[in-house]
Amino acid sequence: MAAKPNITYVRGRGRCETLRLIFAAKDVEVTEDYITTKEQFENLKSSGKLMFQQLPLLEIDGLCLVESAAQAMYLGIKYDMLGSTEQEKGTVQMLFFGARSFYEVSGPFKLFKPLEEQGKFLENSMSKARNRFLPAFEKQLTENGTGFLVGPSATIADCALFNVLPNIQDEPAYGNLLDEFPKCKAFMETFTAIPGVKKYMASPRRFPLTDAAYVAEVNAALH
To answer: Does residue 31 sit in helix, strand or coil?
Structure first.
């Protein structure tokens, strides 16, 4: 029997969560190892598995893959989650990277900023969410009409978008922003209804939103 895919990362969502969601959407079982100390991280770097000396690490099909976007693309090819035509593949990749850009400016990253910069960062995040990202995804969901971004089922773009939206829904500073984008709000229900995703969301592998304790552990282990 082939080994299960294995993820090595810290104990949180971070840059690994889209990968977990891809596996969940296809109901693929994975194993995980968690880096909690600087010594563990240094030992892993010394092993030669981290091409660019960074996490997450995905071990699958005899490969040691780093760079979370490359990992997602590999899984998209492997599990047929990139669309069925050249046009769909192009759209899926555009939306995937758009969702990653959205994630980079979303609320949880404020906790990695100095305290005096967090208010401005969150203000900028709210502005970009309302005026730049959510309108684009709302339009795409409306035009596709299936509840997903492209085609009739989840792609890596859907997984990347779902990685962001709970940050908007659960961050108090955003208020009821998602109510202004009903297709995006409904998308969250559509995505979590996927059987593998539903199972993952109820499991201990689904970490809570980023908090100060997570930031402290990441900084201690990786920096």
So the answer is: strand
62-114 per-position pLDDT tens digit: 999 999 999 999 999 999 999 999 999 999 999 999 999 999 888 677 778 88
SS3 content of the chain, % helix, strand, coil (to 5): 60, 5, 30
Q: How far is CA 89 from CA 66, 86, 142, in A?
A: 22, 5, 19
**What pTM did the predictor assign?**
0.95
The two tokens of residue 142 are: 């409306």
Maximum distance among all Cα pairs of the chain, rounded to whole angstroms: 53
What would you report as the CA-atom Rg of the chain, rounded to the nearest whole angstrom?
A: 17
The torsion angle over the Cα atoms of residues 147, 150, 153 and 155, rounded to 10 degrees, is -120
Say how far apart CA 54 and CA 126 lie, in whole Å: 29
User: In whole angstroms, how far apart are CA 94 and each of 88, 101, 123, 200?
Assistant: 10, 11, 26, 26
With b for 16 or more beta-carbon neighbours within 10 A and e for fewer, the 107-128 pattern comes to bbbbbeeeeeeeeebbeebbeb
Please name which of 125, 118, 119 lies closest in space to residue 104, comparing C-alpha atoms: 125
